[in-house]
C-alpha cells in the first residue's frame, strides 16, 4: 500500500505551522495542505490582530526554535490594568511585584505567521498550497485525504492526518463531528492607535456593558481589540476616523492623552465553536479546529500551542520507538491529556464574557467587589498573574 507521508497536516496557520516545525525537527516525513496562497495570507486583514502571549507560550515557542526569530518584534507587558467602565472596581497586576521580567508579550499575528511560514520553507517542509481538503477516509493501516488544488483533485495517504484548519474546519465537518456553538452577539474591532503619552508597557482591559476593550502595548502604539454588539460595531466601522477615536476616548478616557489612529479597522464576529471530540480513526484535530474562543482573555493561541506541544511530544515518542504514529492508543492518550485544559479555558473565557458583559445590579456589584478585593489580596493577585503568564503548562520534552 502506498504511503505518501507519515503525517499530513491540514491548515498551515499558527497551530499547523508550529506543529509541522516540531515534527520535522524530529525527522518525520510530513506535508502541510493550506487553502490560502502566500499572497492571500500576507495581505489578509486578519493578520493585523495582535496576540497577547503568555510567558509559558513564549518559552514553548523558544524551545521549538520559533521565538528567536520574532523576539525583536514583540513588546513586553510589564503591568496589566483591569477596570470596569462606570464602576469603581479595578485590579492592577505588575511584573515587578511578582518578581518577573514580564507578565506576557504582544506581537502582531502577521509577524509570527510570516516567520512560521519562512521556517516551513527553511526546514524544507512540503507545502501544498493553495489547496483545500475536500475528502477524508481511513482503513486499518492508513488515512486518506482528497484535496483540490485549483480544479485538480489529488489523493494522498498518511499514517495520521491532523486537522489544524481553524474555526471553520473542513476536517471537523467531513468527519461529521458535532460542535457546540455559542453566539455572543458581539463583534471585535481591531485597529492600532498611538497615544500621546508613553504606554509604559501597560496592557489595559476595560470591561463595559456591551463588551470589553483591550489595549495591548506594541512598540510606540496600542493594538486595540474592542468588542461591541454587532450593531454598535457596524456603526463604529462606518464612523469617520475622528469620530471613531472620539468614541474610543469615551470608553477609555484621556489618561494617556489623545489617540491617533494608525491603521484601518477590521472586524471579527465572535462565536465560541467547540468540537464535541478531537479524534477519529487516524485523525486528530488541534487549535481553533477544536476550540475557537472569544478573544477577551487572549487564550486562543496560548491554548492551541499547548495542543501542539502535547501532540508533538506523543508522536515523536511513538516515532522514535518505531511504532505507527497514527495508532489509536496515541490518539486516545492525546485526547485524554488535553480534555481538562480545554474544559478549564473554555469555562474561564465564557465566564469572563458573561460576568463582565452583565449590567444586572447584583452581578455588577459582585464583579466590582471582586476586582477591588483582588486588588487588595497579594496572594490572589499572584494566582491571577500566574494564570495570565501561563506558567501552569509544562515544557515540551523535545526541542532546543
Ligand atoms: C480579534 C482576535 C484577537 C485574538 N487575540 C488573541 C490573543 O491575544 N492571544 C491568543 O493566544 N489568541 C488570540 N486570538 C486567537 C488566535 O488568533 C487563534 O487562536 C489562532 O490564530 C488559531 O490558530 P489555528 O492555526 O488553530 O487556526 P487559523 O489561524 O484559523 O489557521 C487555520 C489555517 O487553515 C487553513 N484552512 C482552512 N480551511 C482549510 C481547508 N479546507 N484546507 C486546507 N487549509 C485550510 C486556513 O487558511 C488557515 O491558514 C485572537 C483572535 C482574534 C480573532
Jot down its keywords.
single chain, 400 residues, FAD/NAD(P)-binding domain, eight-stranded mixed beta sheet, 31% strand, globular
Strand and helix layout:
Blueprint: E1 5-10, H1 14-25, E2 30-33, H2 38-43, E3 50-54, H3 55-63, E4 75-77, E5 79-84, E6 90-94, H4 95-98, E7 104-108, H5 109-122, E8 126-128, E9 132-138, E10 143-149, E11 152-163, H6 170-174, E12 179-195, E13 202-208, E14 211-218, E15 221-229, H7 230-238, H8 241-252, E16 259-261, E17 266-275, E18 279-280, E19 283-285, E20 291-292, H9 300-320, H10 328-356, H11 361-376, H12 378-389
Parallel strand pairs: 1-2, 1-11, 2-8, 5-13, 11-19
Antiparallel strand pairs: 3-7, 4-7, 5-6, 9-10, 10-11, 12-15, 12-16, 12-17, 13-14, 14-15, 17-20, 18-19
This protein binds flavin-adenine dinucleotide.
Residues 10-16, 33-36, 49, 51-52, 109, 132-133, 164-167, 170, 188, 190, 225, 268, 287-288, 295, 298-302, 304 line the site of flavin-adenine dinucleotide (FAD).
Structure description:
- Strands 5, 6, 12, 13, 14, 15, 16, 17 and 20 form a nine-stranded mixed sheet that branches. Strands 1, 2, 8, 9, 10, 11, 18 and 19 form an eight-stranded mixed sheet that branches. A three-stranded antiparallel sheet has the order 3-7-4.
- Strand 18 and strand 19 form a beta hairpin.
- The mean pLDDT is 89.
- The protein has helices at residues 14-25, 38-43, 55-63, 95-98, 109-122, 170-174, 230-238, 241-252, 300-320, 328-356, 361-376, 378-389, and strands spanning 5-10, 30-33, 50-54, 75-77, 79-84, 90-94, 104-108, 126-128, 132-138, 143-149, 152-163, 179-195, 202-208, 211-218, 221-229, 259-261, 266-275, 279-280, 283-285, 291-292.
- The chain starts with a strand and ends in an 11-residue tail after the last helix.
- It has a single domain, classed as 3-Layer(bba) Sandwich (FAD/NAD(P)-binding domain).
- It has twelve helices and 20 strands.
- It is of the alpha+beta class.
- Residues 10-16, 33-36, 49, 51-52, 109, 132-133, 164-167, 170, 188, 190, 225, 268, 287-288, 295, 298-302, 304 line the site of flavin-adenine dinucleotide.
